[in-house]
Design brief:
Oligomer: single chain
Radius of gyration: 21 Å
Number of domains: 1
CATH class: Mainly Alpha
Strand content: under 5%
Number of helices: 8
CATH superfamily: MetI-like
Order of helices and strands: HHHHHHHH
CATH architecture: Orthogonal Bundle
Shape: flat
CATH topology: MetI-like fold
Length: 224
């Protein structure tokens, strides 16, 4: 299995796989993560505020998304949106699905982090004349983000790996490119091990960034 020709194949295929990792896989994961974080904050704020109807809608959204597989959600959006006249490329559709999917999970993370902030701080904000959004922006969310940072960053790392599912809706990302190369050479196992190694590199770098971020947030918390 591993001979001179296999080694040459791995050497020649590595930059091709890495290229698609840098220009498709990582952008897909990062853009989806940023959008999911915005969605998660909005959903968490609605739940934190306790607005009856909106809170139930948020709970319904979280229930649906967390109760169905990501792969099924990709298929529903990819084949469903054109039926109602909404057409877009598969990359954009993948971003939509990944953002909505991760937003549901991150919303629960943010909600728990916001509820961990002592309620007295909310009352203190009102006492000094701040409105709800000012209290959220200046008091609650900064503390909540510091608490939720490890879990949110773990979601980003998981999303990098989950982007391989985008191949099911014709997105040519890192794993799809590997399958194409493997289909030409019929040497599947070594190439799949190689792409796994590239995923490992990406996730290791992100893990180091996460540790650095946690250290910085920890020192900020001590100064405060």
């Amino acid at each position: 299995m591993f001979n001179a020709s296999t080694f040459e194949l791995l050497v020649s295929s590595f930059p091709k796989i890495l290229e698609y990792g840098l220009k498709v896989t990582l952008p897909l994961a990062v853009i989806s993560f940023l959008l999911s974080t915005v969605l998660a904050v909005l959903v968490a704020m609605v739940q934190y505020a306790g607005v009856p109807v909106l809170r139930q809608l948020c709970r319904f959204y979280i229930w649906i998304i967390r109760g169905t597989p990501l792969l099924v959600q990709l298929m529903v959006v990819f084949y469903g949106l054109p039926l109602i006249g909404i057409h877009s490329n598969s990359f954009v559709m993948a971003i939509i699905v990944f953002s909505i999917n991760e937003g549901a999970y991150s919303a629960e993370t943010m909600r728990a982090a916001m509820e961990a902030v002592p309620s007295g701080q909310l009352e203190a904000g009102y006492c000094v004349g701040m409105n709800y959004m000012q209290i959220m922006w200046h008091i609650i969310l900064p503390q909540a983000f510091r608490t939720a940072f490890p879990s949110l960053f773990n979601a980003l790392i998981s999303m990098v790996k989950d982007t391989s599912l985008a191949s099911s809706i014709t997105v040519v990302e890192m794993f799809t490119r590997t399958k194409q190369i493997a289909g030409q050479s019929y040497n599947y196992l070594p190439l799949y091990i190689e792409v796994a190694f590239v995923y490992l590199i990406f996730c290791t770098v992100l893990t180091l960034v996460q540790k650095k971020g946690e250290k910085l947030l920890g020192s900020y918390g001590v100064r405060k």
